[in-house]
Request: fold
Amino acid sequence: MTLEGWTLILAFIALVAAIARPLGLYLDAVFAGRRTLLSLVLRPVENTFYRLAGVKADVEQDWKAYALAVLLFSFICTLALYALLRLQGALPLNPQAFGAVAPNVAMNTAVSFVTNTNWQAYAGESTMSHLTQMLGLTVQNFLSAAVGIAVAIAFARGFARRGAATIGNFWVDMTRATLYVLLPISTILAIAFIALGMPQTLAGSLQATTLEGAHQDIAIGPVASQIAIKMLGTNGGGFFNANAAHPFENMGPIVNLIQMLSIFAIGAGLTITFGRMVGDERQGWALLAAMGVLFLFGTGVAYWAEAQATPALIQAGVDPSTMNMEGKETRFGIAASALFAAVTTAASCGAVNAMHDSFSALGGMVPLTNILAGEVIVGGVGAGLYGILVFAILTIFVAGLMVGRTPAYLGKKIEARDVKLAVLAILASPLAILIGTALAAGTDLGRAGVQDPGPHGFTEMLYAFASAAGNNGSAFGGLTATSDFYTYAQAAAMLIGRFLVIVPALAIAGNLAAKPVTPASSGSFPTTGLLFIGLLAFIIVIVGALTFFPALALGPLAEATAGRLF
Amino acid sequence: MLQTLRPAFILFALITFLTGIAYPLALTAIGQTFFQNPADGSPIVRDGRVVGSELIGQSFTRADYFWGRPSAAGSGYDARASSGSNLGPTAQALADRVRTEAERFGVAARDIPVDLLTTSGSGLDPHISPAAAHFQAQRIADARHIPVETVRRLIEANIERPVAGILGEARVNVLELNLTLDGLPAHEGAS
Reply:
């Protein structure tokens, strides 16, 4: 580990904190329908969209109608993407003449991109036509992110309102997230990326004759437009198989820093938006601080672990004082690779600039545990906010039990129904992860996909289901996930991890919105102080540890302590 | 239900057009107009021929060229099949592969910079560390019959350093370094 490495990590955290507030205030203005800098141009577009779609912008929905709209819209998106993947062979903008994507992979991919997971059971540059990348995958990069943001805003309204029957209008929230937030920022990012070296062309390949006279066929395409929203929307699905380790997706350290910041930007901003919506910005900062504590700890462990040689390298005779460069790019080195791995898994993004499968046992456990923590350390855009608020409800409930007081958060009494729904939302993903991993480890169908023998092979399966249910999308890439078993089981895990959190979250929002607010008294538990921040972080760790310790013991912990190769 | 279906279909269609057609095509137009070389994949042209991309590593095996890192992309630096090895930290297969890689340098693995023994994440890493370049300097000098100081000077001149001291690692672009080798004037080539 070096001073430069730690400076990078701390500077990154400072930059995220600096971005959070201006972006959070902007988001607050957008979703409250106030005028912003872009209203002059975008308001007419927005109104035209509503007119054509028959949306009455000032008519709101109760939580059931809101949830129905989310589900129906996501269903239509899935069908449309599936159709496009199956038909791509007959459609234009296909310079490499790729045929239809196989049915099970197409279904897996459609679910994956609509749930903001972007798990990829295919290699982009040898499977997807340019039309599919643009019209299918890029579109879902926008829409799945917009849906997540919309749900988070609706959830926050549950706390902000009193005696209300509605929590907003999904069509309005989703449209605004796309038009005012995702599209303009992605455009700026994409232009910057092109200027810094990222391809953006409709050509299919760059043909070269190397210095040694060999022919090199270099895959290119409309990369920048997709990578911008891939990061900003915490989608993470790469244009190329190697994702952000590919030099065309991530050319150098400056682009790498911009990409890491874009992954965290909206998730961090939304915590401030939440604070503003409930009338006390410090409430948002408290959530962000709890996220920051967990993030810094994980990043530190990953950096420390990767800055050492692994058992395989040492056995092969390399200098034991060297670092684990297997699966890492020279231009990023150890610190920026470990930091990126922590960012992309804390935030449910899933882009990778180094291969997590080749991380050391403990270094690889950090991205895994970030996902297992429930994708609430900043989390996916929107998903992170409603995710951590569900944990906040549980924290308040536990705190209330300890002192024997009726729990209340932001003046809203937390009652049996809220806690039940919160627990359902918290336990849905772990169930999918543990059952999925058990099925994989217990059957030939599952074990057939594993690359590495020993405990590392178990971790490959555990990581796959964690990634799917956490809607992350990164992988221990040695696993071959194209079989029927993995494509369908993973799709089920992705759907559970997305919608069995969204629906209970919206139900809680509806429930809370209807409640009155009791003014804070000397008896209320302050939710902006260090005690609350610490307790919230503690509850997240405890729930994760109780749920997953046995699985971690069989995988990364067994590998770290094995003292031999497999 | 019907009042949910109409906005669902129409907003899906409108946003698909906006983000799936208008947005990528507008960016392609901007890229091709203002940043043509990067937008086309940063090709390097020598004598009217594309010899590679500045950003994409290529395979070097000749003794008079610097070698890049081992590659897990296809059969090596296949720019249509980017990939890491994904071998785990306790994989015997990884230890065996590293040992084989070390053999081609003819010295103990312990003395070889680790980036020359490990595959990158993409399999297309265009860079090696300055240490890995200097490690190969003597071989290049011998193969080209030039003083090793000349080679070392070229390496030093080609090092890209971290931005602001913290962003990125010091590195050398292998293709560009080899192009400078090929571009050495004849009188410097004679030793």
Observations:
- The longest strand of chain B covers residues 49-53.
- Helices of chain B lie at 2-34, 36-39, 92-103, 130-135, 137-144, 148-158, 174-182, 186-189.
- Chain B touches chain A through 104 residues (CB under 8 Å).
- Residues 57-189 of chain B form one domain.
